[in-house]
Structure formats: structure tokens, C-alpha cells
Amino acid sequence: MKSLILILVAAALSVASVAVIAGNDDAVAAQSPQTETLWKCRACGQSMHLTAARVMELARGPYNGGRPIDCPACGRCEAFLARQCRSCQGAYLGSEVEGGSPRCPACVKPGTNIVEPRPLEIDPKKVPVPSEPPAKVI
Ligand SMILES: [Zn+2]
Ligand SMILES: [Zn+2]
Q1: DSSP single-letter state for residue 96
Q2: Distance between CA atoms of residues 63 and 59, nearest Å
Q3: Distance 37 CA to ligand 1 centre (A)
Q4: Side-chain half-sphere of 125: how many Cα atoms within 13 Å?
Q5: Which ligand has its closest atom nearest to the C-alpha of 83?
Q6: C-alpha–C-alpha distance, residues 111 and 108, integer Å
Q7: How far is ligand 2, taken at its centre, from the CA of residue 69, in Å?
Q8: pTM to 2 decimals?
Q9: Spatial CA neighbour of 41 closest among 75, 80, 85, 67
Q10: Where are the domains of the chain?
């Protein structure tokens, strides 16, 4: 019986400490503009920047990627992490989302053979020194 009480006390203490941590720095940090990510709704097409705190709110829990969250514009659970087009700065859904596109649909000419661009692999510790001028990317 004594050990059961000890376990309950230990559990209560750990819950209390987690609540303190979550209630202070983390919650404030999650609302900072630096945590903003770009989202786009598949249903209504609305794009938006959401802080980590807002994402957790709309996802109704911690967000770990790969699933849609509630769209703040239309209320449907159809908002996905979006990509930003480097040409027109528009938001679009990548090919990882069903119905998405590997390239910005606004910038791809009709009939163009869309090839998934190779993901950039940049290691900040060893940035290669270009030996020749970079090829012009159109
Ligand atoms: Zn929507
Ligand atoms: Zn574009």
C-alpha cells in the first residue's frame, strides 16, 4: 500500500512539472512569428502563415506532419503544409499531398513534363566552393 502511494505522488509531481514547462517558455515560443510555417487548404485554396501554437490548436494536438489540419478559412480538415514558389512566391501543395503538384501550378506551362526537383542537400558545415560559375537555372 505504501508503494502505491509513492507511485501516485511521483506521478502527480511529474505531471505538475510538465504543466509548468508547457505553460511558460514553450507556449510563448510557439506563438512567436519565427515558428510560422506556410499552409494551404486543399478545399478552399486559402494559403496562410501559422505559428506552431496555432498549428497545434488547429490539429487539436501536437502536429507531427503528414496529416491535414483544420483550415481556419473554411473549417474543413484540408489544410496541409505548403511549399512556396521561388518564382511567384505563391503557396502550393507539393506532390507529398494527394492532388498536389511537384512544381508551382501557376508557373508551370501547360504540357510541360513535370520532373520532381532534386531536394537540396546543404550541409552548413561543408559548403562546397564552386569551381565554375553556377549554371543558369531557368
Ligand atoms: Zn479551407
Ligand atoms: Zn509560381
Answers
A1: T
A2: 6
A3: 16
A4: 0
A5: 2
A6: 8
A7: 24
A8: 0.61
A9: 80
A10: 32-118
Q: What confidence tens digit (pLDDT) does each residue in 61-81 have?
A: 888 877 999 999 999 999 999
Residue 50 CA to ligand 1 center (angstroms) comes to: 14
Sign of the CA dihedral running 69, 116, 44, 34 = positive
Cα(112) to ligand 1 centroid in Å equals 28
CB distance 93 to 40 below 8 Å: yes
CA–centroid distance, 67 to ligand 2, in Å, is 24
Tens of pLDDT, residue by residue over 21-36, are: 455 688 888 899 999 9
- In degrees and rounded to multiples of 5, residue 100 shows phi and psi of -85, -175
| Residue 82: closest CA among 106, 53, 104, 112 | 104
Q: Which ligand is nearest to the CA of 87?
A: 2
Q: Which residues pair with 38 in a beta bridge?
A: 49
From the CA of 128, how far away is ligand 2's center (Å)? 28
